[in-house]
Amino acid sequence: MSDTFTDWLRKRSEPDWTAATSHPFTDALLAGRLPADAMRGYLVQDYQFVDSFLALLGSALAKADRYASRLEISNSIAVVTSSENTYFQRAFEALEVSAADRKHPRLDPSTVEFRSLMDDTNANGSYPDVLAVLVVAEWSYLEWAMGAPERLPEDSIAAEWITLHNNPQFQRWVGWLRGELDRVGAELDERDQARCLRLFQHATRCERDFFAAHWPG
Ligand SMILES: Cc1ncc(CN)c(N)n1
Fold first, then answer.
1. Cys staple from 107: which of 15, 52, 93, 111, with CB 3.0 to 4.6 Å?
2. Active-site positions, per UniProt (predicted)?
């Protein structure tokens, strides 16, 4: 069977893709041996990531070429703004994150870089461009989280972060998102496909660097 557009994007993003999806940070998270300080720092920065990520989902919603796609995207927006948001609030309580760090933490350079990629794609990108960045953010998370052992970490903050990213609804969403980029990507000319590839590669490096910034090893 021939490669889909997203298979091609991913292959052309190696070795960064593998570095982002089998990082020592996620290996430790899955094994239940990630230090609480590392998880706290990561989640504080990730909450800032989620702000721009949500705006990027909104950009996809606005730029989509059909109503059925808008419905799929709005389902994902509902998850980010409900179960994922309450997860952050509970995790911040459990990890004793200060009010200042919940709202206005000092941003790590890896957060700044990822946010500016998302904000720029939101402001200037086409629908396929936006999808390219979203696909990396969601597919890479699905991939590491699917490596979860049968016995999840006892720590509920770690366990829940894993299941948020490998549950059947999330698997279905990532499958849809990839299919959507395969659909609209097939219509692009070579120049526009190359721009999607550059965005995909940039987002993959951002994912790798985000984990590296919080890995104490
Ligand atoms: C950095 C990052 N990338 C992706 C995801 C999954 N939406 C996330 N929560 N954080």
1. 111
2. 207
Q: Is 207 a catalytic residue?
A: yes
Q: Which residues of 151-181 are buried (b: 16+ CB within 10 A; e: fewer)?
A: ebbebebbbbbbebbbeeebeebbebbbebb
What is the predicted ipTM?
A: 0.98
Backbone φ and ψ for 107, nearest 5 degrees, come out as: -80, 135
Nearest CA to ligand 1 atom 4: 137
The fold of 5-213 is Heme Oxygenase; Chain A (1.20.910)
Burial track 108-117 (b if 16+ CB lie within 10 A, e otherwise)? bebbebbbeb
What size, in residues, is the chain? 217
Write down the domain spans for the chain: 5-213
pTM for the whole thing?
Answer: 0.97
The ligand 1 atom nearest the CA atom of 206: 1
How many whole angstroms from 138 Cα to the centroid of ligand 1?
7
Pocket test for ligand 1, best of 138, 141, 200, 204 (most atoms within 8 A of CB): 141
pLDDT in tens, 41-81: 999 999 999 999 999 999 999 999 999 999 999 999 999 99
68 Cα to the center of ligand 1, angstroms: 24
CA of 76 to the centre of ligand 1 (A): 13
Give 139-175 pLDDT, tens digit per residue.
999 999 999 999 999 999 999 999 999 999 999 999 9
